[in-house]
Design brief:
By secondary structure, the chain is an alpha/beta fold. The chain is built from 12 helices and 8 strands. A 4-stranded parallel β-sheet has the order 2-1-3-4, sandwiched between helices. α4 links the parallel β3 and β4. The longest helix is centred in the middle third of the chain and has 29 residues. The two termini are 36 Å apart.
């Protein structure tokens, strides 16, 4: 998915006058400057870096569709100052790569999709929502620890301890997935977009949604009338136990699906692509797993 770039010409003009900017290894306040494309990765970076980092997250509004985000000159300036940049990758936030190329920064760049090592399915694209895949998150935590230690060697032990604590919390989330899998593996579920699919797969749930439907919604288009009919039939025939509904991408067809689920007594579990206000990554994922468990137990 591509996002439009706004303000790069203005950004270039701003950068031309930045000869006296702070070092890209630390901010004026003495902290390591970190830029994250989304507040999901920003939260994880803040947990690993602790008091030693200053994190700027670009996509951070839970009420808006992240796919419609438009980068600006302020983003470009933040990139130019960053010691560490973490992007999602996989086409999700290509605007970051464009800004990195326009910048004179020597940032350490971490790409979560590349770090994941996950293979793309035959004949298709990799599901880029890798923050719902806990093994990937563990790998990103390790890379963040190394990047911060490179930028601030004297604090390496702090970053290591923070990373270990966070990975321990991720292990508890994996444990929750395992418990749910032992109870509900094979149960049919539905989605509007493939946002939570890594988590659903880890629980062993069977996504019954026609691929043509979820791809159309993800691409911002409409599925064909026949595909929409097949999707709505999932709820009428009760072959699915829950609908994982992306609250940040809505339209006439997703509204129809949501209405069909509610009308037929199918539990709806809201999911998002960015952190809800006031939540940490771990709290957010834990609450999502709890909501899935409650829906399946009904």
């Amino acid at each position: 998915m591509k996002r439009s770039l706004v303000g790069l010409i203005l950004a270039a003009l701003l950068l031309s006058g930045c000869a006296a900017e702070p070092s890209p290894t630390q901010s004026a306040a003495g902290k390591i400057d970190v830029v994250a494309s989304t507040n999901v990765w920003g939260s994880i970076a803040a947990s690993v870096g602790g008091a030693e980092v200053s994190v700027t997250s670009f996509i951070d509004d839970p009420s808006k569709d992240p796919h419609e985000y438009e980068a600006n000159a302020q983003n470009q300036l933040a990139i130019s100052r960053a010691a560490v940049v973490i992007e999602n990758g996989g086409g999700y936030d290509d605007f970051v790569d464009t800004m990195l190329k326009a910048s004179r920064s020597t940032s350490i760049v971490l790409n979560a999709v590349e770090i994941s090592g996950l293979p793309a399915p035959a004949g298709g694209d990799l599901n880029e929502h890798v923050w719902y895949d806990f093994p990937t998150v563990d790998k990103v935590i390790d890379k963040l620890e190394s990047a911060f230690a490179e930028a601030r060697p004297a604090e390496a032990s702090v970053f290591s301890a923070n990373a270990d604590t966070l990975k321990g919390q991720i292990a508890l989330l994996v444990g929750k997935e395992s418990i749910l899998k032992s109870r509900y593996a094979g149960v049919g579920v539905a989605i509007t977009e493939p946002v939570p699919v890594y988590m659903l797969n880890a629980i062993g749930l069977d996504n019954k949604t026609p691929g043509e439907f979820s791809k159309a919604i993800e691409d911002g288009t409409d599925a064909s009338p026949e595909v929409l009919r097949q999707t709505l039939d999932l709820y009428r025939s009760h072959v699915v136990k829950l609908l994982a509904y992306n609250e940040q991408t809505t339209g006439a067809q997703t509204d129809a699906v949501l209405s069909a689920a509610k009308k037929n007594g199918i539990a709806v579990v809201p999911v998002t692509e960015t952190l809800p206000t006031g939540k940490t990554y771990v709290a957010w994922m834990s609450e999502t797993l709890d909501a899935i468990g409650a829906a399946l137990a009904d």
